[in-house]
Amino acid sequence: MDSSIKIGTRASKLALWQANWVQSALNEKFPDQKVVLITIKTKGDKILDVPLAKVGGKGLFVKEIEQALLEGRIDMAVHSMKDMPAEIPEGLCIGAIPQREDSADVLISKDGLAFSELKRGAVIGTSSLRRAAQLRHARPDIVIEPLRGNLDTRLKKLQTEDLDAIVLAAAGIRRLSLEHHITEYLQADIMLPAVGQGALCIEMRRKDPTIGPMLAALDHMNSRAVVIGERAFLNRLGGSCQVPIAGHGKIRADTFSLTGLVADVDGSRIIKASLSGPADGTETIGVQLAEQLIARGADRILDKLQTMESVTDES
Predict the structure, then answer these.
(1) Tens digits of per-residue pLDDT, 45-74?
(2) pTM value?
(3) Which domains, from first to last, does the chain contain?
(4) pLDDT tens-digit profile of 13-49?
(5) Residue of 83, 105, 164, 264 marked active site
(6) Which long-range contacts (C-beta less than 8 Å, at least 24 apart) are formed by 250-258?
(7) Does residue 49 have an active-site annotation?
C-alpha cells in the first residue's frame, strides 16, 4: 500500500516552487515520511484569453485541486492564499499558513521608469480589478490592458506587446529569484495588496489525524493571525468573486492593524479605512473594518459590480 503523502499543486513554475518548498519543509521535519507532488490543471490554467472576473474569479485556480483533496486523491494542497475564495468547501480547512513573504505589489516597466514617471496615457498590463482600480485612481490617464498567463508569460509580454509596464506580486518575483526585473515596490497608499498576498495556504481535509499534526509544524502563528484577520474582512464583504477589494494587516507589539478598501472598477471612487485592536482578535477586527466600509457605501459598489456581472452573464 502506498504510504506516501501526496501534495496537490498547479503546474506553473511558481506553483511548483511553492509546493517544492512545502515538500522540503516536510522532508526536513519528517525525514522518514515520503512526500510526492501531484500536478493538477485547473480551469484558471486552461482559460488564458479571458479576464478572471468574466469567467469565475478566484476559485478558478483551486476548485479542481480541492475536489481531488475531497476525493482522497491527494492529502494536502498548496495554493497562493490570494487565490483562495473567502469561503472554503465543507470538509476542508486551512491546515497551515507558513511565514509570509513580502505582500507588496511591484511595478516592472519596460524603460525602467517609476509609476510617477510613466508617460501620460501609458499602458499597464494587469487582469486584476483590484490593481486596475487603484492604478486608475492614482493616475486616471493610465490605460489598463488585460494581461493573463503565468509569471514568465507576463514578463515576456511586457517586451513583446504594446505595454509600458506590468504589475505583479513581489512574492512570486522573489520566490523565483527575479528581483532584477523590479522597477519599483508600490507603496500601500498607491497599491494596497490583495487579502493574503504573499502567504501560502496549505489546505487539508478537516480533522485528518495524519496530516493535521504534520502541517501544524509548518504553521507560522503571526502570519496565520494576520491572514485570518484579512480573510474575515474579505468574507464579511462577500468577496468570493473577483472584485476590487484589498486588505492588508500587520501585528506589532501585540496590536493588529488592518487597512482595507473597496473600489469602483474605474477607480473613480475608493472607500478605505483602517482599524487596530488586540492581536488575539484579528478575526473580529476584520469583520468590524468591513462593516465600517459597508456603512460608508462599500455594499453599493459591490452590489453594482454583481449587477454588472449578471448582465454580462446573460448577454
Answers:
(1) 655 555 555 555 556 679 999 999 999 999
(2) 0.90
(3) 1-98+200-219 (3.40.190.10), 105-185 (3.40.190.10), 221-315 (3.30.160.40)
(4) 999 999 999 999 999 999 999 999 999 987 666 555 5
(5) 83
(6) 250/226, 251/222, 251/225, 251/226, 251/279, 251/282, 254/278, 254/279, 255/279, 256/225, 256/226, 256/229, 256/281, 256/282, 256/285, 258/229, 258/230, 258/233, 258/282, 258/285, 258/286, 258/289
(7) no
